[in-house]
């Protein structure tokens, strides 16, 4: 498995991932997703889980009824990488899909 690429210094998080909080100290992206109920939250988690397995990149997350709290970071690099960007974008799309 090749090393994932670090994110370029000029990557525009605000523009590309406006719904995520970026913590450069801890090298994490975080977002809390809210759905209408537990079933919707779990449907979202199943979509994300399948994508994460295919990508071999997994979120650190927790669920409380309709809420899914997510942390993304590349543990093997102790850094944010392109895999975190890919995962964050996919999660945004899955949330959109479930909320639609
Ligand atoms: N997910 C995340 N977020 N970071 C990793 O470094 C990571 C992962 N490594 N999923 C993968 C799995 C690694 O443990 C396996 C062996 O490829």
Overview of the structural elements:
There is one protein chain. The chain is α+β, with helices and mostly antiparallel strands. 40% of the residues lie in helices and 21% in strands. The chain contains three helices and four strands. It has helices at residues 13-16, 38-55, 82-99; strands spanning 21-23, 28-34, 60-64, 67-72. The chain is globular and about 35 Å long. Residues 1, 56-58, 74-76 line the site of ligand H2B.
Supply the key terms.
100 residues, alpha+beta, Gyrase A, domain 2, four-stranded antiparallel beta sheet, 3 helices, 4 strands, binds ligand H2B
- Distance from first to last alpha carbon: 36 Å
Report the helical percentage: 40-55%
CATH architecture: 2-Layer Sandwich
Backbone structural class: alpha+beta
Rg, Å, rounded: 13 Å
Write down the CATH class.
Answer: Alpha Beta
Overall tally of domains: 1
Integer average pLDDT = 97
Counting DSSP E segments of at least 2 residues, the number of strands comes to 4
Ligands bound to this protein structure:
ligand H2B
State the low-pLDDT regions, or none.
none
Count of helices?
3
CATH homologous superfamily annotation: Transcriptional coactivator/pterin dehydratase
- Strand residue percentage: 15-25%
Biggest sheet features: 4 strands, antiparallel
Gross morphology is globular
User: What order do the strands of the largest sheet run in, or round the barrel if closed?
Assistant: 1-2-4-3
CATH fold name: Gyrase A, domain 2
């Amino acid at each position: 498995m090749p090393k994932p690429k670090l994110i370029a210094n000029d990557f525009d998080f605000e523009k590309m991932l406006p719904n995520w909080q970026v913590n450069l100290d801890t090298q994490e992206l975080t977002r809390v997703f809210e759905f209408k109920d537990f079933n919707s939250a779990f449907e979202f988690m199943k979509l994300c889980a399948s994508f994460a397995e295919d990508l071999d990149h997994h979120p650190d997350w927790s669920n409380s009824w309709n809420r899914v709290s997510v942390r993304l970071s590349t543990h093997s690099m102790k850094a944010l990488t392109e895999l975190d960007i890919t995962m964050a974008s996919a999660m945004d799309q899955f949330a959109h899909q479930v909320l639609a």
